[in-house]
Every structure is written in C-alpha cells, then in structure tokens.
Amino acid sequence: MAKRMLTGERPVDSLRTPPAPGWQLRVTGPQITVGNKIYPTNSVLPDEVLMSANSGSLLRSLRIAWCPPGPPGPAPRELPAPTPTKGNPPVEIIIAGNGLDEVETLRLTYAYMIRKCDGNAALARDLIIGDKRGNDLYMRARARLIMIGRSSPAYLLWKPYGPG
User: Fold this and answer.
1) CA distance 93 to 110
2) What SS3 class is residue 27?
3) How far, in Å, are 1, 11, 69 from residue 26 at the CA level?
4) Residue spans per domain, the chain
C-alpha cells in the first residue's frame, strides 16, 4: 500500500524504473560515493544504485536522475583503500615502590601509557579507565586522596611525571 503523495510526486517504485527504454541514471547534483567509487557530476551510475536503501531520496532530491541516452560522461574514480589503524596498546599497571601507594602507581601508569600512546594523554586516560584493573586502581587512588583529607579533583590524579 503506497503512502499518500503530493500532487505530481511519483512513488519510489516508479522512480526506480526508467521513464523510457534506454534512459540512463546520472549524477545531476554534487558528486556522490557509491561503494568504493566516487561518481562526479554527469557520470552514469550502475543499476545496482537503485537497489540501495537511499536511492528514493537521491532521486527525489534530484542528486541523481533519469536522463536520455548520451555520451558516457566522466568516469568514476576508485577510492583508495583505507589505511589500517594502529590498535590501542594494552594497559600495563606500573607498581610504585611496595605497591601500597595507589596514587603514585596511577601516576606512573598514566605516564607510561602516555608514552605507549605516542603522547596522546586523553587516549591513555581512556584506556586506563576502560580497563578493569586500571579502573580499580583509579577508584582506589581517588578513595585514598579523599581518605587523607585532600580535595580530589581529577587533574591531581592524572598529572604525569616528566615530559610525558
């Protein structure tokens, strides 16, 4: 059952069929990306584009349109393969002294993780907090600061030693 449409608007299913035999689907607006190819303006699109979920909105917004047969237009360009991202390093807890000073242990661990994350302090902090052992260490260090009567702003815990 088709939804009610405004006067003159064709249903999406009828938009997906060419108005006359031999017509081509072309990019009429700015370039679009389909799969791993960039189609510039006036290039011919393959018929597989019609099977995509957003083809109806592309047709209604006139980014693509049915056009009479003509010259092929510009060729699509291949997108370069995505570069593989470097994975996040595993969290390693650096024990300070006898292991009883949680604040010192957290600061040493944080400084070490900053070096392992190529200087990215926010990523190092997120990795420590996201790790079960690192989160437990953070909670113990914070409780220790509160217990000895210091105010406990987070920046006191996350101050690393040295240049990072």
Assistant:
1) 9
2) strand
3) 29, 19, 10
4) 21-78, 102-157
